Amino acid sequence: MIALTLIMCLNAQPANCHSEDVAFDGSIMQCAMFGQAVAANYMNGRPKWSLQRYRCSSRRLKDA
Q1: Terminus-to-terminus CA distance in the chain, angstroms?
Q2: What predicted TM-score, i.e. pTM, was given to this entire model?
Q3: What pLDDT digit, counting tens, does each position of 11-59 carry?
Q4: Alpha-carbon distance 15 to 11, whole Å?
Q5: Is 34 strand, coil or helix?
Q6: What phi-psi label fits residue 60: left (phi over 0), alpha (psi between -120 and 50 degrees) or beta?
Q7: DSSP 8-state assignment for residue 58
Q8: What angle do CA 13, 56, 34 make, to 5 degrees?
């Protein structure tokens, strides 16, 4: 499984950022092509946060 890592920052405090790993079921190429859409969908339920950047990696998630 591919890890899609999102760097999210709190809108009220832009210096308050953290990363979250989201499982992506596909290849690195698919993550590169469709990761932005997955990240946008993930952010829909988090209005207090903004997405600063994302990246795809082939490392395994601990709970996957």
Answers
A1: 7
A2: 0.80
A3: 999 999 999 998 888 999 999 999 999 999 999 989 999 999 999 988 6
A4: 9
A5: helix
A6: beta
A7: -
A8: 95
